[in-house]
Amino acid sequence: MQNMEKTYYSPQVQKPNCEILKKLSSNIGLEIDPGQIENYKDVIDGFIDNYSVLNDFPEPTLPVKYPRTPGHRPAPIDNPYNAWYWQTDIIGATEGLLKGKTVGIKDNVAVAGVPMMNGTKILEGYTPEFDATVVTRILDEGGRILGKTACEDMCFSANSFTCSTGPVRNPNDETRASGGSSSGSAALVAGGHIDLAIGGDQAGSVRVPSSWCGIVGLKPTYGLVPYTGAMPMEFTVDHLGPMAKTVFDCALMLEAIAGYDDGLDPRQHPGMEIPKYTQMVNTFDN
């Protein structure tokens, strides 16, 4: 055991033997002599050896700075508008821009130790081991995260009835849809159950439910808010944005989550500067 240099791991790709290569060539109508089969095997083995080097690289991850418990899936009676996917209680820093604010995180954004299904049964049972960058920033600024908000199945709807945990109802009229795909975030903010929420927007998924529920939602400038640790849809359209009851609170949350992510999100430019959005709002009001 003392001479064991590293733990055995199963290779990602198994090397084919000559018999397998011969069968494959025959299946596609190629007549390859045994000498060529050996040559092909040597070439393929070399590619697989190079590919396997990737196993030795440490997988990049994100920090988890604040303690939490896994939480629970709320019972229907404790789940207003069916808008929570999962409830937890993660307390952030004692001071910061978001001190005293309660926050919901759309369920396409990773929160370590808390289940995440992105609205679809395909991912049910998955639990991230890291916090998305926006989650860490919210906690660093004193926010208190109360759970994961329900979203549409794979975020592919602007309504609120495709989530695998059931439709999300509009708090202004529960016979109506709340919009999507950040349906739970909008409903819980509008209903007064949380102060702020994170939404994701590729084609209206922050703006549509915000407008339908009567709150403020912002799709930020591309790359302004890091997408690191969120479930992507397509690199050029992925956005995370704030949702709140007022323009000021929306600006406050944007101020907390915007900014360069040390190169982890290639959507971002290293020279970006983040203004005091709340001061800009106050100046406009005056």
Characterise the protein shown here.
The protein is of the alpha/beta class and 286 residues long. It is built from 7 helices and 8 strands. The strands form 2 sheets. A 6-stranded mixed β-sheet has the order 1-3-2-6-8-7, sandwiched between helices. Strands 4-5 form a two-stranded antiparallel ribbon. α4 runs parallel beside α5. The radius of gyration is 24 Å and the shape is elongated.
Concise structural overview:
This protein is an alpha/beta fold and 286 residues long.
List keywords for this structure.
alpha/beta; six-stranded mixed β-sheet; 7 helices; elongated
First-to-last CA distance: 73 Å
Radius of gyration: 24 Å
Oligomeric category: single chain
Give me the secondary-structure category.
alpha/beta
Helical region count? 7
Spatial sequence of strands, sheet with the most strands:
1-3-2-6-8-7
Which secondary structure elements does this structure contain, and how are they paired or packed?
Layout: H1 18-27, H2 34-52, E1 84-91, E2 102-106, H3 133-140, E3 144-149, E4 169-170, E5 173-177, H4 183-190, E6 196-200, H5 207-213, E7 216-217, E8 240-244, H6 247-257, H7 277-285
Parallel strand pairs: 2-3, 2-6
Antiparallel strand pairs: 1-3, 4-5, 6-8, 7-8
